[in-house]
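Title: Prediction job returns without error message
Component: structure pipeline
Severity: low
Priority: P3
Assignee: unassigned

Description:
Job completed but the reporter wants confirmation the result is attached to the right record. Sequence as submitted:
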Amino acid sequence: MNERGPEGFNVPAVEAWIGECVECLDPPFQWTRLEGGHSNLTYRLDSADGTTAVIRRPPQGPLLPKAHDMSREWALISALGPTAVPVPRALGFCETPDVTGAWFYVMGWVEASPLYNAEDTIHRVPKTQRVAMARDFFGVLASLHKLAPDDIGLGDLAKKDGYVARQLSTWYRSWTASADTAQFDDPRVHRLKDFFAKHMPQQGPARVVHGDYGLHNCLIGRDARVAAVVDWEIATLGDPLADLAYALNPWPEQLSDEEVDLSSATSADGFPSRSELAQHYADLTGANLEQLEYYVGFNGWKSAAILQGVYARYQQGNKSAEGADLVALRSRIGRSLDFAERAVHRYEMASTGKQR
C-alpha cells in the first residue's frame, strides 16, 4: 500500500461497511495490493485476529459498457461455491457506490498462487507433478462445463445462444472503441473478424464459460492442484468449446513449436501436449473436437482484443504504467494475431481435406 492508501478505496467507509455486513471479518485491516493483473483493483485484507480476505472493485476512470462487472463475479462465485468447481468463499457484496465510488465484493483468502510465467511454474510445481496439474486444470474446466446453468441458479446470467457471434461483436467493438486511445490498429483484426463471422460453427447446449480461463486466473496449491478459479468478470453463458480453446491457447503441442512463448507458465518442461489435454477434456465431457481449430483461432483473436483494451487503459492513464512493460504488451497483441492466423490456416487445411 502506498502513502496515499489503497487505490480506489475509501478505507474508513469500506471497513465500516465490512464491520457491519460481513460477520466473519473484524476491521481494521492491513491492506496489501495483490499484483499480477492489469484490471480490477484487488487487495488482501489482514485483520489483527489473523483472519484474511480479499476485496475487489473495478479500475478507476471511464469503463466500457458491462466491463468489470462486480455483480457478475459475485453471482458466479456464490453459485459455484457448492459445486465441484473450486472458487473462493463469497463473503459480502456492496452495490452502494456511495461507500467507495463503485461496487465491490469481499471473498475468502485461498492459500495458493497463480502461475504467471515459466519461473513461477519451475519454482512452485515440481516436474513430477506437472502432468497431474495440467490434467487437473482441464478437469476443473470440464467440471464447469458439465454443469447445467439452470441447475445452479445461473440460467438467467446471459443469453444462451449465439455465444461466438456475441463475443465476436463484443470484442470487435472493444477493439474499435480502444483503437484511438491505444494509438494502435492492425488490419488483421478486421479481416479475421469477417472470417470468423462467415465460418461460425453451430453451438451446442449453453454452459457457463469463464472467458479468461488460464493459469493466471487459477490459484495452484502446494499439491499442484487448482485450489480456486478467480476473475469471473467476463464469465457468461455460451459455447464451452470456445472456453476450451481459449484455455488451450498457451499450451504448446511441443516445446519446439514456433508459437511457444518461452516465458509463459506452460512453457516449462514436463507438461502433456495440447492435443493430449484437449483429448482429456473430451474424455471427461464427451465433446466433439472436429472444429476445435476454429475456436483456437477465434480465441487468439479475442486475446488480442483483450490485450489491446489493457494497453489502451495504460495509454490513457487510467492504470498506472509503473513497472509495466508496454512494449512487450503491445508485442503480445501482434503475437496473438499471428497465433490466430496459424489456427485459421490449420482449420482451412483440415476443411479442404474433408471436402476432398
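Comment from assignee: result matches the submitted record. Strands lie at 29-33, 41-47, 52-57, 90-94, 104-108, 207-209, 218-220, 226-229, 236-238.
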